[in-house]
Amino acid sequence: MTENANTSQSMPAGAEGSRCGVVALIGAPNAGKSTLLNHLVGAKVSIVTHKVQTTRARVRGVALDGPAQVIFVDTPGIFSQAKRRLERAMVHAAWTSAEDADVVVLLYDAARKKVDEDTLAIVEKLKRINRPCALALNKIDRIRRDKLLELAARFDAEGVFERIFMISAETGDGVADLKHWLAERMPEGPWLYPEDQLSDLTMRLLAAEVTREKLFLNLHEELPYSLTVETDDWQEFDDGSARIEQTIYVERDAQKRIVLGRQGQMIRKVREAAQRELSEEMERPVHLFLFVKVRERWTDDPERYRDWGLEFDV
Questions:
Q1: Is the entire prediction scored with pTM above 0.70?
Q2: How many Å apart are CA 43 and CA 40, to the nearest integer?
Q3: Quick one: which H or E segment has residue 211?
Q4: CA 182 to chain centre
Q5: 159: exposed, middle or buried (Cβ count in 10 Å: 0-12, 13-18, 19+)
Q6: Which H helix or E strand runs over 228?
């Protein structure tokens, strides 16, 4: 939503020596992929919450590093017990992105006490997809250095990763080195996006994602996974302001009451937070209007999956 914050020297998209490629960011749920993507791009293009499986769509963020344009794909978290249709579609999308990428980066939360089963399963599958891979050990500020080195050795022994980076996606420590290494690995070719484009998501979808983020942050337990947000109307005015109407869809009447809150307190809190962020990101006044409707089994609607770039029947 904002201009590219990358200060690296760039070059025209078709210039001789230009590079362009795709990097898939994969990992178990809540590894920090969305936070890393936002830091790599230099702007917020993917929502971030403390809950697992926040990312649904494959979000593409575009970053520049010298002659290279790197297209990062933030994928949904990969986990082995995907039972619901939406969960299966999300995991399938993550692996499809990895198989189509020029380089794959596995992000791992180094603060975890041991390597979880989901990550071990990811490593095993990476051995089979035949793509250059790097490992990014995230949250290094939350682990002792000796333990961090042990963890790096544990992953290095798998023989999958060309490089292991130690980073903090939140503070940015080590991220520049990761980005530069990836840029050097991109194949030669013209850039695919204009120099100032940060993401391939439309403004309508980005605005809906901002509202969904606020819902995730304010609602508890499983309810956020039972709702979705759609931008229904967008009007631009001569004074530079915008009026945005969105609908929050839930599956049951009881969920609608929770989203609204007592005397409308919850929906008002979410609206104010989303409107404030949209105004800041768009650098102009935004008037946001939210409506809550019940749509039973919306997770079985193929149209929703097309909007997110997910396959319905997987």
A1: yes
A2: 8
A3: helix 203-218
A4: 18
A5: exposed
A6: strand 228-236
